Amino acid sequence: MDLHPRYAMADLIENHPIAELQVGNSASLTRNFTEDEVQTFALMSGDVNPSHVDATFAASDPFHRVVAHGMWSAALISNVLGTQLPGPGTVYLSQDLKFLKPLFLGDTVRVTVTVTAIDTIAERAPRATLHCTVVNQRNETVVEGSAHVLVPTEKVSRPRVHLPRLELRDPGVKLRAIIEQARTALAGRPPLSMAVVHAVDAVSLGGAVDAAMAGLIRPIFVGPEAKMRAAAAAAGIDLTAYPLVATEHSHAAAEKAVAMARTGEVQALMKGSLHTDELMHAVVDPQTGLRTARRISHVFVIDAVGQPRLQLLTDAAVNVAPDLEAKRDIVQNAIDLAHALGIAQPRVAILSAVETVTPKIPSTIDAAALCKMADRGQITGGLLDGPLAFDNAVSKRAADTKGIVSSVAGQADILVAPDLEAGNMLAKQLEYLAEAKVAGIVLGTRVPVVLTSRADLSDARMASCALAVLLVLATSTMVPA
User: Fold this and answer.
1) 316 with 420: CB under 8 angstroms?
2) Among 381, 358, 369, 282, which residue's Cα sits nearest to residue 326?
3) By the 8 A CB rule, do 150 and 93 touch?
4) Alpha-carbon span 364 to 379, nearest angstrom
5) Whole-angstrom Cα distance, residue 263 to residue 268?
6) What is the pLDDT of residue 454?
7) Per-residue pLDDT tens over the stretch 466-476
């Protein structure tokens, strides 16, 4: 047989047809029972018995820890029968297994099947009985029994199919850690008082109530009272415990919420189901808004699947085409947020299409100037490098391939987009094509503004509330109860 170059003899999968099969033939495999094995089997079978997938519950069950699904061991037996002995072409008829001991996380098992009988009655396909055992690393028999199979009659020898590697990831796990960080930081303090602006749909109402139930915020709902109550009733949300401030419409709700922030009635704002422009118009008003000496900007906090750290992406929501002076404030705002999250010296990648300074691409000139501003103390608290293309900013391999020597490249905490269009498209691509979970917040204002998308679900809104809590605590505007 001519084999593709990538296949060696060890990559062949062969069977033992009836002409080769003998009583006493044996085959084995060894497998470690890991957390990935737990999750893979649960996903495949739909069996989410908490004894298998919930460590807290399992601590109180008879075995006091997570145990393997019983049929996980049976699946390993099937693996040996189908791939080794008798191998491809084998048809399972029945099995009789006894589950003698539990399997725990970290256990290593050896699965062995041994031919004990062969039936070659001419009137029917040949059959075989195999004794099956699963033995753990303590030499304890975990599973024992027999399997009855139809034995293949023709020899099979084919290249082994190499399955893609299965990586089980938990989208949103890093954002959930931020939520827990905020809850821990609030210990002994009151929740953050937050005006929720024009929450007249189930998502914006539910997100605020969930954050309140988590102990993060004390929501004050500002908007048309009849609409808010109707939306809450339709969604089964109880607003009895929360203050409502009635306004005529969404525009008035934005103005009222901003006024409440100016007088200290609330410590943060959250956008409900109104347009971003409508809320931000009230926020940026030079006379009655929430401006400070710092340029207002927005940061997306992105939990991308497979990335070891959160990435802060700015600005993708407020500043359309920022000039160099605005970019200085945008970078400083993001650094301040990173500090509030506990990142002592965030690595800041100033993004462009290329990693060299090129006069034909203005964003590369801005990137170089921002790095020099950091050298001169005009931007503080972070480590800047740029211009960097996106791949060089987040992938060490890409940076090394291009010979980029940088303490930021490949491990950026903050990604600074050249303009709103690029930043917004990048954020949405990560969210909708790469399964990233995204939270967002407006900075450079007197109080943080949780500026979620109307498409954001409750968990994104709660994570954004956690960002607001950490920001307010970092600026020491809250006092112990």
Assistant:
1) yes
2) 369
3) yes
4) 18
5) 12
6) 59
7) 999 999 999 86
Tell me which amino acid residue 476 is: S
Burial call 407-441: b when 16+ CB within 10 Å, e when fewer: ebbbbbbbbbbbbbebbbebbbebbeeeebbbbbb
C-alpha R_g of the chain: 30
Question: Which of 47, 75, 51 is closest to 65 using CA atoms?
Answer: 51
Q: Could you tell me if 133 and 176 are in contact, meaning their C-beta atoms sit under 8 angstroms apart? A: no
Q: Which two tokens stand for residue 48?
A: 């989410």
Chain mean position to CA 1: 46
358 SS3 class: coil
- The whole-angstrom separation of Cα 453 and Cα 294 is 24
Q: Name 401's Cβ contacts closer than 8 Å, sequence gap at least 6.
A: none
Residue 53: CB atoms within 10 A of its CB come to 18
The predicted-structure confidence for 375-410, as pLDDT tens digits, reads as follows 999 999 999 999 999 999 998 888 988 999 999 999
Question: What is the biggest distance separating any 2 CA atoms in the chain, rounded to whole angstroms?
Answer: 97
Please say whether the beta carbons of 438 and 427 come within 8 A: yes
**What residue ranges in 15-125 does DSSP mark as E strands?**
26-32, 91-99, 108-119
SS3 93: strand
Give the pLDDT mean for 230-255.
94
User: What is the average per-residue pLDDT within 141-158?
Assistant: 94
For residue 197, what is the enclosing H or E element? strand 192-197
Can you say whether the dihedral through the CA atoms of 370, 374, 376, 379 is positive or negative?
positive
Q: How many other C-beta atoms are found inside a 10 Å radius of the C-beta of residue 388? A: 29
State the average pLDDT for the chain. 88
Q: Sign of the CA dihedral 348, 354, 357, 359?
A: negative
Q: Which two tokens stand for residue 110?
A: 């050896």
How many angstroms separate the Cα of 164 from the Cα of each of 37, 167, 255, 268? 15, 9, 54, 46
pLDDT-derived band at 63, boundaries 50, 70, 90: low
Please give the pLDDT value at position 54.
Answer: 62
Give the DSSP letter of residue 10: G
Structure tokens at 275: 């347009």
CA distances from 37 to 34, 73, 371 (A): 5, 11, 46
